[in-house]
Amino acid sequence: VTLGLGWALFWLVSPASIVWAIVYYGASIGGQHSATIGMRMMDLELRTWYGARGYFVLGATHAVLFWVTISFLSPLVLLVGLLNGRRRLLHDIILGTVIINSSVRTQVSPAARASY
Fold first, then answer.
1. What integer pLDDT is reported at residue 1 of this predicted model?
2. Which of 22, 30, 100, 105 is 20 to 30 A from 8 via CA?
3. Which of 45, 94, 88 lies closest to 68, judged by CA?
4. pLDDT value at position 33?
């Protein structure tokens, strides 16, 4: 349809998709559910090491650090998750985040939740 002229605009797609992905992760992890749509489907939430919900900058930084560690250290980054007791990957350890199962968290008794 564009007779090849569309390729001249192709360089705009990559930066726009990166910006969109960073905004998506920041907004979804920084939102009410502290999870992306896929994480919500699997009943997962991102929390800080002390239990607070995620926020926009944390979500955006988590995504960028994930991409960087996977790009440069793959598949070695998976060894970090296999060798530590909490099964956290390198980017989670650096940022001080944990991924929790939401349905298990909601089943914990109020007395046990108070001890967090």
1. 58
2. 22
3. 94
4. 92
Q: Say whether 45 sits in a helix, a strand or coil.
A: strand
Q: Give the residue among 44, 47, 63 at the shortest CA–CA distance from 55.
A: 47
Task: Specify the DSSP element, H or E, that contains 59.
Answer: helix 56-73
Among 86, 96, 88, which residue's Cα sits nearest to residue 55? 96
87: left (phi over 0), alpha (psi -120 to 50) or beta: left
Q: What global pTM score does this model have?
A: 0.75
* Token couple for 30: 């920084």
Question: In 3-state terms, what secondary structure has residue 51?
Answer: coil
**Rounded CA gap, 100 and 93, in Å?**
14
Of the candidates 49, 44, 59, the one whose C-alpha atom is nearest the C-alpha of residue 106 is 44
Q: Two tokens at 107?
A: 């089943």
Nearest to 44 by CA among 61, 62, 57: 62
